[in-house]
Design brief:
By secondary structure, the protein is an all-alpha fold. The chain has 10 helices and no strands.
Length: about 280
């Protein structure tokens, strides 16, 4: 009995390119609106009745009669920049803490670095932000610091675990026997070996950071109650969802597109590196 052998293998490269293009489009639209929107918004037009459509407002008006499209153009920068800054700051601190904790031979130093982070990890992220917000009113920079702070413990543990695995390989022992400096071993070899792990974690972490920043803005932390902010738009306009849905749907879709596209790009990049 003759077996049939497929004459054409699945086009894995074409599927990867399609996923990359989709991810780039999903990320590109909200990023472009967030970064370029304030430059394109111009002066606000006259206000109209709340939750109306038409009348020159092609996405309608919001809860106080402002043009929704104008608010969308202005409202992305705060969410996106705070999330990106918080994610970068979290890794900026977590990376050296995790690498030093994994490579040091001094137990007391490892305990000094990691145990306080375990205590902080036990506190729910949103609860900590709410407690700080109850003591004083944080602005956007303070919110970025707070979100970075609550993400450092988890990120540092991931870095430490990956660095400890890389440090146990024969290549690192060979570098030590050759008399290489600690800096070159830690950064030049161990640090580079963490790139794939950190890339995978960054996609998931950025999603969580965006969720936390949007939730904080939804609760009025870090932004003014009537600010042009995508998360604030969702909160303030949800009462008119059935009457004028675009004021809620458009900003919510932009946040979802940014998080979904980021993870799609990261997954596609990791898959491509694994195959090569």
């Amino acid at each position: 009995m003759r077996s049939r052998i497929p004459t054409r293998l699945p086009d894995g490269g074409g599927r990867a390119r399609s996923r990359f293009a989709l991810g780039a489009a999903l990320v590109g639209v909200p990023l472009a609106l967030a970064l370029l929107g304030p430059l394109l918004a111009g002066a606000p037009g006259p206000r109209a009745a709340s939750f109306t459509t038409g009348g020159g407002h092609w996405l309608g008006t919001d809860f106080v009669g402002r043009d929704v499209w104008h608010q969308v153009l202005l409202g992305g920068r705060s969410v996106v920049l705070v999330a990106l800054a918080a994610t970068a700051l979290a890794y900026l601190i977590a990376f050296p803490v995790g690498v030093v904790g994994a490579l040091t031979h001094r137990t007391w130093l490892e305990e000094l670095l990691m145990r306080p982070l375990d205590v902080l990890l036990a506190v729910p992220s949103l609860l900590l932000i709410l407690l700080v917000a109850a003591a004083f009113t944080p602005g956007a920079p303070a919110l970025a610091l707070l979100v970075a702070l609550v993400n450092i413990p988890d990120a540092a543990r991931i870095v430490r675990a990956a660095a400890a695995d890389a440090a146990s390989r024969p290549a690192v022992e060979a570098l030590r026997m050759q008399g290489e400096t600690w800096w070159r071993t830690a950064v030049g070899h161990v640090g580079r070996s963490l790139a794939r792990t950190l890339a995978a974690d960054a996609g998931v972490r950025l999603t969580g950071v965006l969720y936390l920043v949007a939730t904080a803005a939804f609760l009025g932390i870090g932004v003014e109650p009537d600010a042009a902010d995508w998360a604030v738009m969702v909160d303030r306009n949800r009462t008119g969802l059935l009457v004028q849905p675009w004021a809620v749907v458009v900003p919510a879709l932009l946040v979802v597109a940014l998080t979904t596209g980021t993870n799609l790009l990261v997954d596609t990049g990791l898959e491509k590196r694994r195959k090569t």
